[in-house]
Design a protein that fits this description.
Distance between the termini: 44 Å
Radius of gyration: 24 Å
Shape: elongated
CATH architecture of the largest domain: Sandwich
Largest sheet: 7 strands, antiparallel
Strand order of the largest sheet: 5-6-9-14-11-12-15
Number of domains: 3
Number of strands: 26
Helix content: under 10%
Length: 379
């Protein structure tokens, strides 16, 4: 039976022009070996449940593209946006952009500026880190910036306080370039097999002297020494309107970058929902319940999929809930909300409203243009 195969060209895995029946003598990978090889979730920046643009960023947080944590510590002010822009002919139609709106040309020693992707330990066991069979790791991505020069990519092991860094160069201003970086295997320190954050992929955009004053730790994994982490990194925050864009981030086991693992949007979204689930916009149904007291409507919100851990709830002003109750009773808008009994599958919500009859049954909706409820279980 004919099978589609991939052949190693010397620099990349490429599909054979036609199906073949005899693969003797070829170094190949079957299609089923390519599934789920990208350890990064949402590397194509397709999912942005929180929104597609946030301005005035001066602190660490998740802002637009799911699973992409932006860390800034007193190094400028930023706008983060999801752009309809990608490398021509690459298949990528969206990218994540960081734009400097207030510059910091002279970073303080402890300043940091990084895009971070954190990965659960139980998703990393195929790396075999901490054993004699430990695997190399390869990172590939597309990048564009108006600031050329040296940038740093770092892998950090949170379980064993170890790290390794590599540099790459942006050669041409405002031009999409593909970068591929291979990191050495580490036979010291296994990743925990749990749902905690074990490995971080850090794409550095700037740093103060605390992290740039040593010698770049690039040849092997070592115990983390801050001074050796980001040596040679340019300062993207040096001037307003400096920007940096990225898409197609892939982290995989081995010493070779395979073609990017494009997934259906629904699969990307489901993977992101493990860490964030969003209900938003006016009159979107939430859950049924009843009035626990005359001013407190209680109900259990079932989660869309199982989350990484019991989530915390963030809501727009007033709690964003409209409660419908009792024949002839007026709709009631929450003034605040409380939560209880959160698990990775459900959460109890208590909406505080004006008075009505205790025991009345209710159904509850998100209320108000722009209103939202976020359930967050990020690493």
């Amino acid at each position: 039976m004919a099978k589609q195969a991939y052949v190693y060209s010397g620099t990349d895995w490429v599909p054979l022009a036609s199906e073949v029946t005899n693969l003797s003598g070829y170094q190949t990978k079957a299609l089923n070996q390519f599934a789920n090889r990208n350890l990064v979730i949402n590397g194509a920046m397709q999912v942005a449940q929180r929104g597609t643009s946030t301005a005035g960023i001066t602190t660490e947080g998740y802002y637009t593209s799911d699973r992409m944590l932006f860390n800034v510590l007193t190094q400028g002010t930023w706008t983060q946006s999801v752009e309809n822009d990608g490398p021509t002919g690459s298949g990528f139609v969206k990218s994540l952009k960081m734009l400097c709106t207030t510059a910091d040309a002279s970073p303080a020693a402890g300043d940091t500026l990084t895009l971070i992707h954190r990965i659960e330990g139980q998703n990393l066991q195929s790396i075999k880190k901490g054993t004699s069979a430990a695997e190399q790791l390869t990172v590939s991505f597309w990048v564009k910036s108006n600031v050329t020069g040296t940038y740093i990519v770092e892998l950090g092991d949170a379980d064993n306080t170890r790290q390794v860094s590599k540099s790459y160069t942006i050669n041409a201003s405002a031009t999409w370039e593909k970068k591929t970086i291979t990191f050495p295997a580490d036979t010291t320190g296994a990743f925990d097999n749990d749902n905690g954050s074990s490995l971080s992929l850090l794409l550095w955009l700037g740093a103060g002297s605390d992290r740039t004053s040593g010698t770049l730790n690039s040849s092997s994994w070592n115990t983390t020494t801050n001074a050796n982490r980001v040596v040679g990194q340019v300062n993207l925050a040096a001037a307003t309107n400096n920007y940096w864009q990225v898409t197609g981030i892939q982290l995989e086991v081995g010493d070779t970058a395979t073609p990017f693992e494009f997934k259906p949007y629904a699969q990307d979204l489901l993977e992101c929902m493990r860490y964030l689930q969003v209900w938003k916009d006016d009159n979107k149904s939430l859950y049924s319940g009843h009035y626990w007291s005359t001013t407190e409507s209680a109900g259990t919100l079932p989660l869309k999929i199982q989350m990484r851990s019991a989530p915390t709830l963030t809501a727009s002003s007033g709690g964003a809930i409209k409660t419908y109750t009792g024949v002839g009773q007026a709709q009631r808008i929450s003034s605040s909300i409380n939560t209880d009994a959160a698990s990775d599958m459900s959460i109890d919500i208590f909406a505080i409203t004006s008075s009505t009859t205790a025991g009345n049954a209710t159904f509850n909706r998100v209320y108000g243009a722009g209103a939202y409820l976020w359930l967050v279980s990020e690493l």
